[in-house]
Amino acid sequence: MTITLAIKLAYAIINVMYKIFQLGDYMITDGKIQLASGFIFDYETMLGDGRITENDLLELKERAQAAAAAIDEMRKSGYAKAHLSKDGAPEPVYFTHLPYIKEGSPNSPESIAKLKDFADYMQREVDAVIFLGVGGSFLGNRVLYDIFAGGGWNNFTHDERDNHPRLFFGGNNIDPWQSLHIVQQMDSLAENRKHKGDRFRLLLVPISKSGTTLETLTAFSYYYQELTKRENIDVDVAVVTDLKEETGSPLFKLAKEKGWRTFDVKEGVGGRFSVLNDVGLVTAAAIGLDIEMILEGARAMDKACQKADFSNPALLNACLKYIADNKYNCDTEVFMSYGMCLKSLGEWYVQLLAESLGKRHNRDGETVFYGRTPIAAVGSTDMHAQTQQHQDGKRNKVIQFLQVDEFEKDVVLGNPFPHLPDFAKYDGVSLNKALQIALLANREALDKDNRFSALYRLPTLNEFYIGQIFYFLMLSIAYEGELANVDAFDQPGVEAYKKIIKRELGR
Q: Which residues are tagged catalytic?
């Protein structure tokens, strides 16, 4: 069999549907849920010998219904059971409101209009932007950049970027080398503009809810101090922080003093959920994305995930992970995206899972030490690095695959060396299909050894589908928090080390 034929057959297998029946906006198969949008959750390889059984799911049915009811109540009230701020006061949770553009929502018509105006300003008047944030103020932003701009963005001409600015990320680590390197890059870019008789227009965007985040403020202070000294660089600033006067964000105070643009880190939207709010959408604006389409994808996912049964893909995903962890000792979850541009999505998911579910105590104050260890991986690269452990190591892992059915662009190989037989077998091979074959092979090998895995499939990568996958993962984690009876929206462990850092810095 030629590799071309093998690819065609494998791709056909990927798309096989079994025992399909229609249920509203869903197509449900044995081990697969397909939404009307084309998004697929394929959980067949979570089931079977030595893995999750029908009885396991039936035993969890009432708790699943209770979890669905709790999230539905959160949608209505804006509060999660027993969730308190770090100061011990009741604190709203508004991440379920993010997909809906309306007055009173974290994303209002006014805030979307403000982001669009910001996009126009950057396209007209900014040569480069340095986004300064860490954790939730960086990871989601980096996902948007990697998927929709990519590593070559900053090497494109102004016209090739459609006049959108170059993008850089700092403040995501206390790293002097990174800081020096970025300043050197700005100097080089400014020098090139100087030769053309133009001044270099730079925008700094510090992102911090409190306005006191160590990594963000140290980086912002350094870049502002250094780059405002340059005679050929014009430095502007836009601040993303809590805009309430009473919270006392120093970034907000400074922005008011200097007349800088401001964007709000909304109440009730934790950092790891904030990519669908101003925190992440400022990056979307910088590269010219359709912000409303991102939120439309999230909104479609939210509407598809409101049933209180196992036809709700996010609820089912949470239940399967919960059972695998608690009954089958799967205390590690590998998020393995196929495609290099998706690597940062796995890194974003690591924070989402770790901070949301990694909890010492449940909401009744009992010591539970809940939560899986998340690991980011990328296929096919990490098939040559991690898969040996996945396949032959401890049986304590759930491997979560992410597949894109069709990337916007593909590469079809020719044969530049026809005199060498080893190259002939790659002639005519589509790299997109070959990537899918690699995923299929990885998944099948795990399945044959009765190891836990599941698959998320996106028809393609655009704003709508990135909104869908972001929100699906957020909602899955929220449901699992309810199943485990832990607060998925606090982070007491993070607060513990922050206090020590402040003490050691004498602040």
A: 355, 384, 498
